[in-house]
Amino acid sequence: MSEARSDIEAGYDRDGYAVLERLFDAAECARIRAIGERLESFRSGEMVPVMNPHREQPELLATMGDARLTDWMRRLVGGEPMGLQTQYFYCRPGTPGFARHQDNYYVRAEKGAFASAWLALDDVEVANGALVVYPGSQREPVLEVRPIPQLSTFGQDPNANKQECILPAAYRGISVPVARGGVVLIHGHLAHSSNDNKSADRFRHVLLMTYIRVNMPFRAGYAAKRETFELGARAAAT
After folding, report:
1. Of the candidates 131, 133, 112, which has an alpha carbon nearest to the alpha carbon of residue 189?
2. Which of 26, 106, 176, 208 has the fewest other C-beta atoms within 10 Å?
3. pLDDT (tens digit, 9 = 90+) per residue, 41-77?
4. What is the DSSP letter of 197?
C-alpha cells in the first residue's frame, strides 16, 4: 500500500471522510456534466436535484463502476460493493444548502456497510456550496432529527432542509473545498451538510454515487426507491 493511500484510509477511519484530489480529469468531468444537462430538470430550467439519474442516463454507470472508485469502495464497505443510488446536483446560484444529516438515517443499512462518493464536476468552494462535514461523527449511531425552519427550496430538493440531525455539541463543522474532478468519500454515519451557493454566477455540479456491500439489507425509501445494481465488469456481463 502506498503511503498516500494509507494516509487517506487513516483519515477516513478517523474523520469519516476523505478527499481524493483530481481523481477524474477535466475532459471526464465535462462529459459527465454534459450528461447531467440532458436531464429534464436541467432542460426545463427547474434545476432541482435528480434522484437516480443513472436510470435515465445509463452512461453514468460507467463512472460509478470505474475501478478508481470501486477499488476504494471495496475497502470502505468491507466487501464487494454494489451500486445503490445516484443523485445529480446542479446547485445554481441562490440554491440553499442541504441541512445537516447522516445518509444512514435514510438507508438504515448495517453500520459501515455503505459509503458514498461525491464527485465535484466544477471547482467547489464555500461560496458556491461546498460540503460541510463533522469529523469523527461517523462514530455516532443513527441520530434523532428535529424540524428546522425551511427558508427556501429554490433549486433544492424540497425535503433537503426541513430537518436536521441532532448532533452532540462536541463536533464542529468544517467546509471542504474540492477542485474539479476531486471525490469526497463519505461514511454513511458522517454528519454533513452543505453551504448555500452565494456566488453570483457559479454552479456546483456534483454526481453523488452510493455503494453498499453485497447482500446487505437496506431501506428502499418512498422517494429514492433504492435498488442495488451491478457495477463494472460484472454489470457488463449481465
Report:
1. 112
2. 26
3. 999 999 999 999 999 999 999 999 999 999 999 999 9
4. B
